[in-house]
Amino acid sequence: MRFYSHGKLLITAEYAVLDGAQALCLPTKKGQFLNVEENSSGSIKWISKDENGEIWFQDEFKKDSFGIRSTSEENISGKNAEISQRCIQILTAAEELSGLNLFEKGYTIETELEFKREWGLGTSSTLINNISQWLAIDPYVLLNKTFGGSGYDIACAKADGPITYERTKETQISLKSPFDPEFSDHIYFVYLNQKQNSREGIAHYRNQEDTHREILIEKVSNITQQIIKCESLAEFELLVDIHESLIAKTINLPKVKHKHFADFTGSIKSLGAWGGDFVMVTSKEDPTAYFKEKGFEIVIPYSEMVL
Residue 264 is part of which domain span? Predict the structure, then answer.
């Protein structure tokens, strides 16, 4: 059995999407495969491969009266202990939700990434969605039981183009979006040379005063709708800059442009957790040389990144 899910980019409503703001989300062309083969080992053999087909993690899990455990001493207490524990958490929740005993016979599970793990395009969310496809369970529930978050990344994993996403108390609203800017050849994505911890970013957001949270949600949702409808690069840049200033004030952190690229002439917007992963850049000319001179080698045009 073979399953596939797309990666993700959160274009608007970072942090605010957690509280119900409408977000513009873009699935990426690259994602992750999951290959599942039944065997008779009574265990689950887990192999994770990177974009070059190289194994970056592997383990074997067994289940006894104490629950699911790793059979690898290195993964129990070594550098991969956190990854191993996360796999156990996912398998435990997947069994609970599916009502299946995955260890009655056993499986070999192999994941295949198409993008670099450190890029933050959804190594975890694509895995959750693939596991959910395999076992026919609700990916949003599995996400809540494991990594947590707003769920926009799960919506992207299943999407075949741009979407708007909104989380309510009762459900998730994911709709196809008409976002298809004529100026997309002036949009680029630049990797900031470090992966940002989304859970830490969310914790920082939650620690801020929320006296104006409802106003934030309304403003961000309005910007999302305006961005979807805008017809010119100038209007897009204005909306991006307004959004960036709004979130910067909310989370009390400096804008990435002011921090790293103050002399850049186009707009620069953080995506997802601030401080790492990718930023979205607008430029009338190819900005690759500018960013490479500053030590940022990975500059990807919109057409190569977005599904």
Answer: 180-305
CB atoms inside a 10 Å sphere around CB 304? 11
* 249-280 as b/e: b if 16+ CB within 10 A: ebbebebbbeebbeebebbbbbbbbbbbbbbb
Last residue of one domain, picked from the residues 144, 175, 206: 175
Let me know: does 115 contact 49? Beta carbons within 8 Å.
no
Q: Say what percent of the chain tops pLDDT 70.
A: 93
Asked whether residue 261 falls in the same domain as residue 277, the answer is yes
256-275 confidence digits (pLDDT tens): 999 889 999 999 999 977 76
pLDDT in tens, 2-47: 999 999 999 999 989 999 999 999 999 999 999 999 999 999 999 9
Q: Which two tokens stand for residue 20?
A: 């119900």
Terminal Cα-to-Cα distance of the chain (whole angstroms): 24
Q: What are the backbone angles phi and psi of residue 30, rounded to the nearest 5°?
A: -100, 145
